[in-house]
């Protein structure tokens, strides 16, 4: 009788253990995913091009991967921050492209201001930039390439005002195709051919940009420079305009007062749109 009782107790304990184990297994395999993938609208779009449309953004310049540690004190002022403003102003005519539309761009770092104007057309096939006036700025949606050995030369010392309107018009040697339509993932095209190297762009993937409570689908676009893998540039375009730019310049040299290399660092320029206003098309 005692043996039967012990057998029954052991059997019941085994059943309870199996039930608990099975329950735990079900929780792990059938429970809700705590981080489900976010849906992204992959519909094609055209860049907004109505006069009066405007964008406000922040700029953050940072030094990363500083080596050796002994040179870190040279970067004590980083990150550097600024704010920018871009607006589609008016129509005009330029020699190389004929009728174009002007996009004005201005960025402020402390007491320093830089302003420029870029000249575009936007058709059913592509958005093209023909040239610019004034020194280069963050400039949405296309930015002229700068060498970043010395980030933002001439700034962060004394207040300076750089204006765009009185400067000469600089035409690109070939037109710059900034976006191609329709916007389809993996589309790639060449922007510049300098003989010994080229610069092209490619639509990589769709991602959501979060602005306050809004979720804005963007096409992540890479600018590919064949001369160096140290330049890693991404632009994020949407039907509401450019929302973000993330440019990383790797392995920059840090020199001392004698011009001798004392170390290296990576330099990042991050731009995020904080608000925008797309004007109605009254045509």
Tell me what the structure shows.
This protein is mainly beta and 283 residues long. A hairpin with a 3-residue loop joins strand 2 and strand 3 (98-109). It has one helix and 13 strands. The chain is 10% helix and 52% strand. It has one helix at 2-30, and strands at residues 54-67, 80-94, 98-109, 112-122, 126-133, 161-162, 169-180, 188-193, 198-211, 214-225, 231-238, 241-255, 261-277. It has one domain (54-277). Strands 1, 2, 3, 4, 5, 6, 7, 8, 9, 10, 11, 12 and 13 form a 13-stranded mixed β-sheet that branches. The N and C termini lie far apart (97 Å).
Strand content: over 45%
The helicity comes to 10-25%
Number of domains as seen in the coordinates: 1
Question: Total number of helical segments?
Answer: 1
Q: Termini, distance in Å?
A: 97 Å
Number of strands: 13
Structural class: mainly beta
> In one word, what is the shape?
globular
The radius of gyration is 27 Å
Give the helices and strands as they follow along the chain.
HEEEEEEEEEEEEE
Assembly type of the shown chains?
Answer: single chain
* Poorly predicted ranges: 25-31, 147-165
Largest sheet: 13 strands, mixed
Average pLDDT, rounded to a whole number, is: 83
How do the strands and helices of this protein lay out in sequence?
Elements: H1 2-30, E1 54-67, E2 80-94, E3 98-109, E4 112-122, E5 126-133, E6 161-162, E7 169-180, E8 188-193, E9 198-211, E10 214-225, E11 231-238, E12 241-255, E13 261-277
Parallel strand pairs: 4-6
Antiparallel strand pairs: 1-2, 1-13, 2-3, 3-4, 4-5, 5-7, 8-9, 9-10, 10-11, 11-12, 12-13
């Amino acid at each position: 009788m005692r043996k039967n009782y012990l057998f029954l107790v052991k059997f019941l304990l085994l059943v309870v253990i199996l039930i608990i184990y099975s329950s735990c297994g079900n929780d792990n395999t059938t429970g809700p995913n705590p981080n489900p993938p976010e849906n992204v609208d992959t519909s094609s779009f055209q860049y907004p091009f109505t006069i009066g449309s405007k964008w406000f953004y922040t700029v953050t310049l940072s030094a990363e991967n500083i080596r050796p540690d002994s040179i870190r004190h040279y970067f004590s002022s980083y990150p550097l921050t600024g704010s920018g403003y871009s607006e589609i102003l008016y129509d005009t005519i330029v020699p190389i492209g004929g009728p174009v539309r002007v996009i004005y761009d201005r960025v402020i770092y402390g007491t320093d201001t830089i302003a420029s104007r870029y000249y575009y057309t936007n058709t059913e096939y592509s958005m093209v930039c023909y040239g610019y006036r004034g020194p280069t700025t963050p400039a949405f949606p296309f930015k002229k390439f700068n060498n970043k050995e010395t980030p933002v030369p001439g700034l962060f010392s004394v207040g300076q005002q750089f204006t765009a309107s009185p400067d000469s018009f600089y035409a690109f040697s070939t037109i710059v195709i900034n976006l191609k339509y329709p916007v389809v993932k993996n589309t790639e095209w060449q922007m510049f051919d300098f003989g010994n190297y080229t610069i092209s762009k490619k639509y990589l993937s769709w991602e959501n940009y979060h602005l306050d409570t809004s979720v804005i689908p963007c096409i992540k676009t890479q600018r590919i420079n064949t001369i160096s893998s140290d330049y890693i540039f991404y632009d994020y375009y949407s039907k509401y305009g450019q929302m973000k730019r993330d440019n990383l310049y790797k392995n920059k040299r840090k020199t001392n007062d004698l011009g001798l290399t004392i170390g290296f660092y990576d330099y990042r320029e991050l731009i995020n749109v904080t608000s925008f206003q797309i004007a109605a098309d009254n045509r």
